[in-house]
Write a structure and sequence with these properties.
The structure holds two protein chains of two kinds.
Chain A: H1 2-19, E1 34-36, E2 42-44, E3 52-58, H2 63-79, E4 84-90, H3 95-104, E5 110-113, H4 122-125, E6 133-137, E7 143-146, H5 150-161
Parallel strand pairs in A: 3-4, 4-5
Antiparallel strand pairs in A: 1-2, 3-6, 6-7
Chain B: H1 2-16, E1 19-29, H2 39-45, E2 50-56, E3 61-66, H3 74-83, E4 87-101, E5 106-110, E6 113-117, E7 124-133, H4 141-148, H5 155-158, H6 163-166, E8 176-180
Parallel strand pairs in B: 6-8
Antiparallel strand pairs in B: 1-3, 1-4, 2-3, 4-7, 5-6, 7-8
Classes of the chains: A alpha/beta, B alpha+beta.
Chain lengths: ~160, ~180
């Protein structure tokens, strides 16, 4: 069973590295993100070291992201107290649209807004090519999973929290 | 004789290579958001003359780089987008032009394609230029109507050469792209 899991993980890493050459992948240190949060203060991804972090790129206009927010809500409520955090990066160009969606979806986790346009945008640096895109980050600030959902995501969060 | 042949080849070559399309910016639209899946990106990457597709998620653009050796055919891009379940909302293509005449409502052969300039300029185009394709299937129906109304030529409706074009040396029933510059 353990070997099987290791093989699966290895396969996952290989597939991921082939499929997304330019995209950051598991094993890599998470690139720094420093963007304005809801109250306007700059929030840094690196400030969350020591926690298990789900980094989530989304937008108010992205339907699948809004559905995913509902699922993340449950996960957040269940594991926040154990050291789990969600770092949501909205790529909305409109600050108003972003804040409205945060309110409507009753999001209580950390939120920042990627406001720079063009090459300098955080989404560009992370090579985000579809929404939502998410990364699971371990206590050392390393990327350990990408686009995990549902039971797979919860299992991975549980596993990382226990380490 | 041999020299003459080489000269002919050189002349023929310099005539056909009056321009080359190198990149393009494409927007896709549909019932769902095109940026919420990788379908459009993957479809565009499969087009034979496309070298690379970058996604600018904030401006919601697909930035295409074309292969240097490839023959760019814009219809292949709209077909790829449509096969992925979306439609092209805008396509701007850039390339290096060399002495391309682009008078208003005139036709020109550009990078092997028949191009009809709906607006235009009295100057010849040289250097890096960007054109916007305004044929059906490359923008919204409303925008198409707006551009189609700027010319009396019937080829704008069909995208295929008609009487208007054959006068300017284009064979009948050839694909003609309508553009603005």
């Amino acid at each position: 069973m353990k070997i099987q899991r290791k093989i699966n993980l290895l396969l996952f890493v290989i597939i991921l590295s082939i499929a997304a050459k330019a995209q950051p992948g598991p094993g890599q240190q998470a690139m720094e993100i420093a963007l304005p949060s809801l109250n306007g203060d700059t929030l840094k991804l690196s400030s969350l070291k020591g926690k298990i972090v789900l980094l989530d790129f989304w937008a108010s206009w992205c339907g699948p992201c809004r559905i995913s927010n509902k699922h993340m809500m449950k996960l957040y409520a269940k594991y926040k107290s154990q050291g789990f955090e969600i770092f949501g990066v909205s790529v909305d160009n409109s600050e108003k649209d972003w804040k409205k969606a945060v309110q409507k979806d009753k999001i209580t986790w950390l939120q920042v807004n990627d406001r720079e346009m063009g090459e300098a945008s955080t989404a560009m640096k992370w090579n985000v090519s579809a929404l939502p895109t998410s990364y699971l980050i371990n206590k050392e600030g390393k990327l350990v999973g990408m686009d995990l959902e549902g039971k797979d995501l919860e299992a991975a969060v549980k596993d990382l929290l226990s380490k | 004789m041999k020299k003459l042949l080489i000269l002919l080849i050189v002349v023929a070559f310099s005539v056909t290579v009056n321009a080359q399309f190198t990149k393009a910016t494409l927007k896709a639209s549909g019932l769902t958001c095109s940026m919420c899946s990788k379908a459009v990106k993957v479809a565009l990457e499969k087009v034979d003359f496309v070298q690379e597709v970058k996604v600018d998620i904030k401006s919601q653009d697909y930035v295409l780089v074309f292969k240097q050796s490839g023959h760019v055919e814009f219809d292949a891009l709209s077909k790829a987008v449509e096969d992925a379940g979306f439609s092209v909302a805008s396509l701007k293509a850039s390339g290096n032009f060399a002495d391309v005449k682009a008078a208003k409502d005139s036709h020109a052969k550009v990078a092997g394609l028949n191009i009809h300039f709906l607006n235009g300029t009295d100057e010849t185009l040289t250097g890096e230029k960007t054109i916007t394709i305004v044929d059906k299937n490359f923008l919204s129906a409303k925008e198409f109507k707006k551009y189609a109304n700027t010319t009396k030529h019937t080829c704008v409706q069909t995208g295929v050469s008609g009487d208007c074009c054959t006068k300017e040396g284009i064979a009948a029933h050839e694909r003609v792209y309508h553009v603005i510059i």
